[in-house]
Amino acid sequence: MSSQVLTSLRFERLLLTGAAGGLGRVLRPRLKRYCNTLRLSDIAELGTAAEGLEGVSAVVHLGGVSTEASFEPVLQANIVGLYNLYEAARKQGVKRIVFASSNHVTGFYRQDEVISPADPMRPDGLYGISKAFGENLSRYYFDRYGIETACLRIGSSFPEPRDRRMLSTWLSYDDLERLVLACLTAPVVGHSVIYGVSDNRAVWWDNTSAAHLGFRPQDSSEPFRAAAEARQPSIDLADPASIFQGGAFVRTGPFDN
Predict the structure, then answer these.
(1) Active site residues per annotation
(2) The model's pTM
């Protein structure tokens, strides 16, 4: 885990939702270094509950269904749940949210294309659709109520890339921390969309429009290239997962209730 302190700013109280999930567990000790109180939320057991959003400086929202699933759980967690979060933030006067969106908002672009947040959404499944809804909902709450949101279209955040696709989409845990801290500390966020990706050699996403957030990735998937290529020595170009940026998500489903 990175021990570098990335900002001298300190928050009185932050809320981290999805704190028991994969990336939530990564960020819990890291975010704690930057606030006096780190409040945690998850459907999993986390101990005695404290008061919701009262007194929270900002929210890092990782909660919800994090993969492709049938519509009902996606609806409840990623759509209804997100609306409830923004309504609570509005009522409690929270002015900044870092929202974990996903690269699957644009998963049906091809891997031979380079896109930016200005390009139209092309979600690759119900999960991607729910994140597209979240980006639009957060835009509404900014335009109507002034709640700033940084929408993080997170690529593939794991200890190392698992396959050749992830050589382009990989986001190291240290760069994830840098990304979240940049969005929490930028003087002005407004409503911004940024792809969460490390400084990889092959890139599909252009973050120029989000330069004002100050995110500077420092890691690269290149040291893992040989291992990833050894695990996947060939690519089946007839497989949609090898053609589209969303990978296997473009061929996941349908689902039974």
Answers:
(1) 127
(2) 0.93
